[in-house]
Design brief:
Blueprint (H helix, E strand, L loop, with lengths): L8 H8 L1 H10 L6 H14 L11 H15 L3 H11 L5 H10 L6 H23 L8 H13 L8 H20 L6 H9 L5 H13 L3 H13 L5 H11 L2 H7 L5 H8 L9 H24 L1 H5 L4 H20 L8 H19 L4 H24 L6 H5 L2 H7 L6 H7 L1
Helix pairs in contact: 1-2, 2-3, 3-7, 4-6, 7-9, 8-19, 8-20, 9-10, 11-18, 12-18, 16-19, 16-20, 18-19
């Protein structure tokens, strides 16, 4: 019996130069080890992580400080449970990880590596779930869309580990259900709000409606159009609903987001946003392009797509309209706009599959030419913002050289500004 030997050349290349290895496998994404290289690079990115000047107010700083504090406490099991109770957290994963890491070190940068392991796994699996379903030679516009997909919730969103990891875990469970009918995978969706980020209880609502009613795409489309123009939540009714039916811990945890004064300031644009203009608008431009595509595909290409008797396509499109309706509404309260990113991920996946796997009409090709500059704008700005946490070692180093600068890396953006 002849035994095949599978030499792990990708590991050798990766240890020598992770960044170039990643680029090679992204170009050759059909190679079997490609998604694992993406996963490894996310872990390496965590090891070479830099906290730039623009990231000083982000959650990652609090996570690092917490590791030092917990290490000094030397908590036993009862102490750990009391710490979690007093923390006011609802989801448990991040606290468990912090307690585990702090048990052997006071260096908070180790927690970023752990974040990279978890985030990178789900991120790489979601990206390749789409890539593995592309048929034929990759079209030019598909490549642009793939860039957008990778950059919608990219690896440098580790700055906000809880919500963005929850995003990819939710997607990890959702896609097999929508595209393959695998209901068992939805367990990941239902675990997400309790393990990773409590706010995903909101995401469970449209999913529950979809499971209950099925794909009522025409009604979901009408609801989506309505919420594009009218989406403000009545905060008094919303607060009453939370107060009457939510657990006490959820009421306390969400009180700052539901403040009437804070909401009024948010809707009246009175909240100071110190970001440069392109950082404020690049995701909005991307979202507008996606919405336009979805409406156009549904209204003008429905018959052509129905010829293929593709129920799976309409399952995904129907759920997107429903989920976008909820994200449009919830985006009118502070921090609710983050759910738009989930809508954008789903919409991008659908548009990729339509352009790559179906015959494309002339009008849709024309639309893609018109949309390309706006999508490229999104890509450029998303890559630009990565420089806030990507270090020189991320690009030019390797796992061995990173040991020398671990916890003391400079963000490329800070270096550029220094000249």
């Amino acid at each position: 019996m002849r035994i095949k030997r599978h030499t792990s050349y990708h590991l050798i290349y990766f240890v020598a130069q992770p960044f170039l290895t990643l680029i090679y496998y992204l170009i050759n994404f059909k190679k079997p080890k490609a998604k694992n290289v993406m996963w490894l690079f996310t872990v390496f990115y965590g090891a070479a992580f830099a906290i730039g000047a623009e990231s000083q107010g982000s959650d990652i700083n609090r996570y690092l400080d917490e590791i030092f504090s917990l290490n000094q406490m030397s908590l036993d099991l009862n102490g750990a449970l009391q710490y979690f109770y007093l923390s006011g957290e609802i989801d448990v994963l991040r606290t468990i990880l912090s307690l585990m890491v702090s048990s052997f070190t006071d260096n908070g940068y180790y927690i970023i590596i752990v974040f990279g392991v978890i985030f990178g796994y789900f991120y790489s699996r979601n990206m390749w779930y789409v890539l593995d379903r592309l048929e034929g030679k990759t079209k030019s516009f598909t490549r642009i869309l793939l860039f957008c997909l990778f950059l919608t919730v990219p690896i440098w969103f580790l700055n906000g580990f809880r919500f963005w990891t929850a995003t990819h875990v939710f997607l990890f469970g959702l896609l097999p259900y929508l595209l393959e009918g695998k209901k068992k995978s939805l367990i990941w969706c239902f675990l997400t709000p309790f393990l990773i980020h409590y706010s995903f209880l909101i995401a469970i609502v449209p999913l529950g409606i979809y499971l209950l009613l099925g794909n009522k795409i025409k009604y979901y489309f009408i609801l989506f159009i309505i919420t594009v123009f009218v989406s403000n939540i009545n905060i008094n009714q919303f607060n009453n609903l939370i107060s009457n039916y939510a657990p006490e811990v959820l009421i306390e945890r969400t009180s700052s987001y539901r403040s009437e004064d804070k909401l009024a300031a948010y809707r009246n644009n009175e909240v100071t946003d110190t970001r440069v203009w392109y950082a404020k608008y690049y995701t909005k431009v991307f979202n507008y392009v996606l919405v336009f595509f979805l409406i156009y595909i549904y209204k003008f290409n429905e018959k052509q797509l129905m010829k293929n008797n593709n129920k799976i396509f309409f399952n995904l499109l129907g759920f997107i309209f429903l989920f976008m309706s909820f994200s449009n509404v919830i985006s009118t309260i502070p921090s609710g706009g983050r759910f738009i990113y989930i809508s954008n991920l789903l919409a991008t996946i659908l548009i990729i599959l339509v352009f790559q796997n179906y015959p494309t009409s002339k009008s849709l090709k024309t639309l893609s030419l018109f949309a390309s500059p706006f999508l490229i704008f999104f890509i450029v700005i998303a890559l630009r913002l990565s420089l806030y946490s990507i270090s020189v070692m991320t690009i030019f180093g390797n796992p061995l050289t990173t040991i020398l600068t671990f916890g003391d890396n400079w963000a490329i953006n800070d270096i550029i500004k220094g000249f």
